[in-house]
UniProtKB/TrEMBL annotation:
InterPro entries: GalU_uridylyltTrfase_bac/arc, NTP_transferase_dom, Nucleotide-diphossugar_trans. This is UTP--glucose-1-phosphate uridylyltransferase. Keywords: Nucleotidyltransferase, Transferase. One of its GO terms (molecular function) is UTP:glucose-1-phosphate uridylyltransferase activity. GO terms for biological process: UDP-alpha-D-glucose metabolic process. Residues 9-275 form the Nucleotidyl transferase domain. It is an enzyme of class 2 (transferase). Its EC number is 2.7.7.9. It catalyses: alpha-D-glucose 1-phosphate + UTP + H(+) = UDP-alpha-D-glucose + diphosphate. Pfam families: NTP_transferase. Belongs to the UDPGP type 2 family.
Length: 296
C-alpha cells in the first residue's frame, strides 16, 4: 500500500531539444536559458525543494551536461570569487549546488513525456512522487505543488494541475473533463484528452507541467502505446488510471489560478524575465521606470 506514504521524490524531465528557441539552444540546453540571472531549471528545482521534496531525479539526454555542471560544485570559480571578496556571487554559486541531492538518468531516445517518466521507475520505486516540467515556472508566492501533495495524500490517487485557457487554445494542451468533489477544493478527473480539436474538447481546463503521481502509473506506462505525435503520452496513461479502481486508481485535479509562465514559449519566456526582473530589489524600480518611458 502507498496510501499515507509521504511524497519525497521529484522527477524533472529535461531531455527535450528546445527547437522553439533555435539557434540559441543549438549548443545550450533550453533549461539553461537565463531568467534574469539564473537558469530556468533552477527555479523549478527550488520549487521542489520548497515543497519539501528531498530526492530529485533529472531525466536528461545528449548535450545536457550543462545541467549537471550547474548544480555541481565549482571549486576553481568559488576560490576565485573568494579571493576577490565577491561574497554575493560566491553565495549565489554555492546555493545552486546546495539544492541537492540531484540524480541524473538519460532518456536515450526522445519517445515522449510518458517514456521520460517511465525512465524514473527504478529510482522512484513503490512510492508516490512529483513530476515537474522544466518549461513551467510557477511564481514562488503561489502555492501549487504543496497543495497537490496534500490532495494525493488524501485521495491515494494521482493529481494533476489544471489552468483555464481560452477555449480556442485548448488544442495545444492536454484537456480534462472534471467533476467537483463535495466539500473540497479539488476535482475528480473523469477523462483526459491529449491536444483535442477545439470542437471536441470536453472543457477549457488545460493540464500544465505539475503532477503528483501514484507509482501505479509505471505499470500503465509500460503498456501505453505511442499516441499523439508518435510519442508515449503521460496523458494517455493517466486517462487509464482515471477510470480504474483499486490501489492507485483515480486521478484528481487542482485548478491553479496563480502566476505561471511557459518558458518554452518565446513570448511567455519574455514575460517571465520581465515580471521577475521588475520585482528585484536591486534594480526592479529602475527597470519599471524605464519600461514606462519605453512604452511612451
Amino acid at each position: 500500500m502507498t496510501l499515507g506514504k509521504k511524497v519525497r521524490k521529484a522527477v524533472i524531465p529535461a531531455a527535450g531539444l528546445g527547437t522553439r528557441f533555435l539557434p540559441a539552444t543549438k549548443a545550450m540546453p533550453k533549461e539553461m536559458l537565463p531568467v534574469v540571472d539564473q537558469p530556468a531549471i533552477q527555479y523549478v528545482v527550488e520549487e521542489a525543494v520548497k515543497a519539501g521534496l528531498t530526492d530529485l531525479l533529472m531525466i536528461t539526454g545528449r548535450q545536457k551536461r550543462a545541467l549537471e555542471d550547474h548544480f555541481d560544485r565549482a571549486p576553481q570559480l568559488e576560490r576565485t570569487l573568494e579571493l576577490k571578496g565577491d561574497s554575493a556571487r560566491l553565495e549565489a554559486v554555492q546555493y545552486a549546488s546546495s539544492l541537492g541531492p540531484i540524480h541524473y538518468v538519460r532518456q536515450g531516445e526522445p519517445l515522449g513525456l510518458g517514456h521520460a517518466v517511465l525512465c524514473a521507475r527504478q529510482h522512484v520505486g513503490d512510492e508516490p512522487f512529483a513530476v515537474l516540467l522544466g518549461d513551467d515556472l510557477i511564481d514562488e508566492r503561489d502555492e501549487l505543488l504543496s497543495t497537490m501533495i496534500d490532495v494525493q495524500a488524501t485521495t491515494g490517487g494521482s493529481v494533476i494541475a489544471l489552468i483555464e485557457v481560452d477555449p480556442a487554445q485548448i488544442s495545444a494542451y492536454g484537456c480534462a473533463d472534471i467533476t467537483a468533489v463535495d466539500g473540497t477544493d479539488y476535482f475528480r478527473v473523469n477523462r483526459l484528452v491529449e491536444k483535442p480539436a477545439v470542437e471536441e474538447a470536453p472543457s477549457n481546463l488545460a493540464v500544465i507541467g505539475r503532477y503528483v503521481l501514484h507509482p501505479a502509473v509505471f505499470d500503465v506506462l509500460e503498456h501505453t502505446k505511442p499516441g499523439r505525435g508518435g510519442e508515449i503520452q503521460l496523458t494517455d496513461a493517466l486517462e487509464v488510471l482515471a477510470t480504474s479502481g483499486g490501489e492507485g486508481g483515480g486521478v484528481y485535479g487542482v485548478v491553479f489560478r496563480g502566476r505561471r509562465y511557459d518558458t518554452g514559449d518565446k513570448l511567455s519566456y519574455l514575460k517571465a524575465v520581465i515580471s521577475i526582473a521588475s520585482e528585484r530589489v536591486d534594480f526592479g524600480e529602475e527597470l519599471k521606470s524605464w519600461m514606462k518611458d519605453f512604452i511612451k
